[in-house]
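Researcher: Please predict.
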Amino acid sequence: MPIIPNFPLQLLAEHRAWHHARMSVDPANPPPGFGADFLEFHRQFIRRALDWYRRQGLDERLVQPWIVPPEPIRAAPCYDRAAEARIIRMPWSFATADELGLFIESLHNCIHQQSALLYGEPDLNDLDVAPRSTVFYQIHGMIDNWYRAWEPRTGSGTIRCG
């Protein structure tokens, strides 16, 4: 999968700063709002990054969100298919966006790691530069679609692409 040429340094800096500010958080005891913040930050970030991407005239097919990760990622020992099934089939089982975001993060790291291996893109394991990869948008677009499916007040309740 390609690395996006001339990716804006200010977007990389924004992504890096957001993640670095949260690195000291204990994943076993995150503060209230941590999961919702993860979902909202990435929603806004991918929206801005993809707006830039489109203005460059780059191939939008390369950044289309997955419905689920490719099978080699789903087959990895770190990947939890039951967690995926809950997110997709029972989004209403999460009481809050915070709960959903924390739950999705349990899959998120595995998806990044396995994508880096599958596509030979070590950037996906480096939060400082991961947004340069088209796969980053396939992952985070999928996550945002999962989030949209959970949003009964603003979403359709179904998973959408794009």
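Model: The chain has a mean pLDDT of 92.
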